[in-house]
């Protein structure tokens, strides 16, 4: 009964987030699914593919890559060992069992995909773990190993994985046909795999069996393109899913221009991608889902599609590339000396492709390394630090040479280590600090952004006026991350809630009101009223209205003052109200930090750096939490489905009427 009530509550909340046009669209979508199911629509009959043997592909990587590392990674894949989130490795079988969740072992049935309840764990297991291997990022690794070594076993591995997937995941059946984003990401990785093995002329397709595999694969490509084109996300779901779907459709149509529909699919995808680049990313380069990991995700989509278009002579307009450069500039500005970026918003370790074998690979630095070459930006090269494997596969040896030249500019002119922009008012973020790009760098990033994108703000966190702080590349104040989407509800609620961020919570309520795991009903609105800078200081003032909904409304204004000479940060929280309220101020520290309280002064030490926090007024009582489950506090999540105990400081007390709290943060080197 409880589960039924929860489902009904979610359904009602979801309806409340929809406009009348969206309700009409959803009804049409439901009707379309039934038409697909009974065969009135869809692509069960596939037209004959045109000859593609005229198309040739080159990857100019020279001898810059470690072939043995790719072969080692591919050998693990041949054994059925694939890294999937917290499973290192997951066993998907050899041959793979594609409809089995490697985390729980649940085998999802081959029911009509669009009607399957993908969050029903007894039915499908953990859908994230099931979907991930089916995106076929690992297929590219097999193809890379073949491309570099020429060894037949890797080509045979590609054949095994493709043929078994086609046999076990027939068109429209099973969870791999339940969401348009999944076939779209498969198309992206199939495109790379196809090109790496030599396209239609690959030895994989020699002989009758090879020809049969090629035709079966091409038929599925057609069905994938048709499905994605017919089921593009819209309205409140038109977020990163729509971008990924359009990129998959573009690459599917342009890699395999084998049917009459291909040109139409390609033009449709291109036209909408040009629009979505502007609609989903602010003019100053911030992705409007307000989630840094999703900024990386969609930026990679845009990049892969843009490069493929350039190479085929179907380039995107200048505005597309200009907005992409702005997105990279934002990442560069929030990245600290050691390459860390804040974990604002949701993160699920989603990648469009995986072109590397290096375990220390940083997707953010990789994007900047690629962007350095594309946009002739020495400052991007400084942050990217080196021309990584992924950048080499995408831009070749010529790109590596350009990167080396830009890196030389950085050595000769350290000005390139300075951020080119500190304020992103449209996106809602501001950077404060000093000595950028040096061993004494202080970088503080303030979040005064909207909650998220569109009606449900699916991937936003209730983190208004929070901040993160690094000193000399050491993360001292952090955003704890996301943990997992489908974990027990209290964990999902915690990591996206206000208490998991460096800000103020009132009456143990989040700033915004949740309606489900990917849905917010009432959204706090944040406003920056001052951001001023001089050689001596910088001052931020912002507020939000999230607690105006209370019977006794509470206004929260936060002022952050950074004194350049003393390296002292004063955080002033003004709370305006009439009645009595419980107030909590949270500070979250890196899992690597040593944290202690001495006479109500909090000392945080990490790798030769120290942060001292105190509240001179003594109006609130400090407590430290580490790995607490009652209440849930003192956790950080560095990657999806992984969490570690880490220290959290909570100042707590009861107020009556308006009040001001000052928190002093002092930085020093040990």
What does this structure look like?
This protein has 17 helices and 25 strands. It is of the alpha+beta class. It folds into 3 domains: 215 residues, no CATH class; 142 residues, no CATH class; 242 residues, Beta-galactosidase, Chain A, domain 5, CATH 2.70.98.70. Strands 11-12-13-14-25-18-17-16 form an 8-stranded antiparallel β-sheet, with no helix packed on it. It is globular and about 80 Å long. The N and C termini lie far apart (58 Å). It comes from Undibacterium parvum. InterPro entries: Chondroitin_lyas (IPR008929), Hepar_II_III_C (IPR012480), Hepar_II_III_N (IPR031680). Pfam families: Hepar_II_III_C (PF07940), Hepar_II_III_N (PF16889). GO terms for molecular function: lyase activity.
What's the topology here?
Layout: H1 2-16, H2 20-38, H3 67-78, E1 81-84, E2 87-91, H4 121-124, H5 127-134, H6 137-149, H7 152-168, H8 181-196, H9 207-230, H10 240-255, H11 262-279, H12 292-312, H13 318-334, H14 363-375, H15 378-384, H16 389-412, E3 423-424, E4 429-434, E5 442-447, E6 467-471, E7 474-477, H17 489-496, E8 504-506, E9 513-516, E10 519-522, E11 526-533, E12 537-544, E13 555-563, E14 568-576, E15 580-588, E16 594-598, E17 601-606, E18 609-614, E19 621-626, E20 628-629, E21 632-633, E22 635-639, E23 642-645, E24 647-656, E25 659-669
Antiparallel strand pairs: 1-2, 3-4, 4-5, 5-6, 6-7, 8-15, 9-10, 11-12, 12-13, 13-14, 14-25, 15-24, 16-17, 17-18, 18-25, 19-24, 20-21, 22-23
Helix pairs in contact: 3-6, 6-7, 6-8, 7-9, 8-9, 8-10, 9-10, 10-11, 10-12, 12-13, 13-14, 14-15, 14-16, 15-16
Protein name: Alginate lyase family protein
Domain Heparin-sulfate lyase N-terminal: 126-349
Organism: Undibacterium parvum
């Amino acid at each position: 009964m409880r589960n039924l009530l929860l489902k009904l509550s979610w359904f009602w909340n979801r309806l409340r987030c929809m406009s009348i046009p969206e309700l009409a669209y959803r009804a049409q979508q439901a009707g379309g699914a039934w038409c697909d199911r009974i065969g009135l629509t869809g692509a069960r009959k596939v037209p004959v593919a045109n000859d593609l043997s005229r198309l040739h592909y080159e990857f100019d990587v020279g001898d810059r890559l470690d072939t043995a590392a790719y072969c080692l990674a591919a050998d693990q894949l041949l054994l059925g060992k694939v890294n999937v989130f917290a499973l290192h490795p997951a066993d998907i079988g050899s041959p793979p069992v594609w409809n089995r969740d490697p985390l729980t072992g649940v085998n999802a049935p081959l029911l009509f995909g669009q009607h399957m309840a993908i969050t029903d764990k007894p039915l499908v297991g953990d859908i994230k773990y099931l979907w991930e291997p089916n995106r076929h990022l690992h297929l590219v690794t097999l193809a890379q190993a073949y491309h570099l070594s020429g060894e037949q076993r890797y080509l045979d591995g590609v054949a095994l994985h493709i043929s078994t997937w086609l046999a076990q995941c027939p068109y429209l059946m099973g969870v791999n046909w339940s969401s348009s984003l999944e076939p779209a990401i498969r198309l992206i990785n199939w495109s790379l795999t196809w090109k790496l093995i030599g396209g239609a002329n690959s030895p994989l397709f020699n002989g009758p069996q090879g020809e049969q595999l090629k035709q079966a694969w091409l038929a599925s490509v057609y069905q994938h393109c048709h499905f994605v084109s017919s089921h593009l996300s819209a309205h409140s779901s038109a977020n990163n899913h729509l971008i990924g779907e359009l990129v998959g459709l573009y690459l599917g149509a342009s890699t395999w221009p084998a049917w009459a529909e291909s040109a139409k699919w390609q033009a449709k995808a291109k036209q909408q991608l040009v629009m979505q680049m502007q609609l989903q990313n602010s003019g100053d380069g911030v992705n409007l889902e307000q989630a840094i990991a999703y900024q990386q995700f969609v930026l990679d989509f845009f990049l892969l599609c843009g490069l493929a278009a350039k190479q085929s002579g179907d380039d995107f307009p200048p505005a597309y590339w200009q907005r992409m450069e702005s997105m990279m500039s934002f990442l560069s500005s929030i990245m600290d000396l050691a390459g860390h970026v804040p974990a604002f918003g949701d993160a699920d370790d989603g990648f469009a492709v995986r072109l590397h074998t290096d375990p220390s690979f940083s997707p953010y630095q990789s994007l900047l390394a690629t962007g350095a070459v594309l946009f002739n930006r020495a400052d991007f090269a400084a942050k990217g630090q080196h021309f990584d494997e992924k950048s080499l596969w995408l831009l070749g040896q010529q790109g590596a040479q350009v990167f080396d030249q830009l890196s030389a500019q950085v050595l000769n002119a350290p000005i390139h280590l300075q951020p080119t922009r500190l304020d992103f008012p449209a996106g809602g973020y501001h950077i404060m600090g000093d000595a950028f790009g040096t061993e004494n760098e202080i970088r503080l990033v303030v979040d005064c952004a909207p909650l998220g994108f569109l009606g449900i703000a699916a991937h936003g966190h209730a983190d208004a006026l929070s901040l993160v702080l690094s000193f000399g590349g050491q993360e001292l104040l952090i955003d704890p991350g996301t943990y997992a989407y489908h974990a027990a509800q209290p964990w999902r609620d915690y990591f996206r809630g206000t208490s998991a961020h460096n800000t103020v919570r009132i009456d143990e309520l989040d700033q915004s009101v949740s309606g489900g795991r990917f849905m917010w009903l009432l959204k706090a609105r944040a406003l920056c009223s001052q951001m001023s800078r001089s050689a001596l200081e910088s001052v931020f003032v912002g507020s939000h209205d999230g607690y105006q909904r209370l019977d006794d409304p509470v206004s929260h204004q936060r002022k952050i003052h950074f004194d350049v000479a003393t390296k002292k940060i004063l955080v002033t929280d003004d709370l305006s109200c009439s009645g009595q309220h419980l107030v909590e101020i949270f500070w979250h520290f890196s899992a690597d930090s040593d944290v202690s309280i001495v006479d109500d002064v909090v000392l945080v030490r990490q790798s030769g750096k120290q942060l001292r926090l105190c509240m001179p007024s003594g109006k609130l009582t400090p407590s430290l939490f580490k790995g607490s489950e009652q209440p849930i506090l003192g956790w950080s999540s560095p990657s999806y489905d992984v969490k570690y105990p880490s220290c959290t400081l909570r100042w707590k007390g009861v107020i009556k009427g308006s009040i001001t709290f000052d928190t002093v943060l002092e930085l020093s080197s040990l």
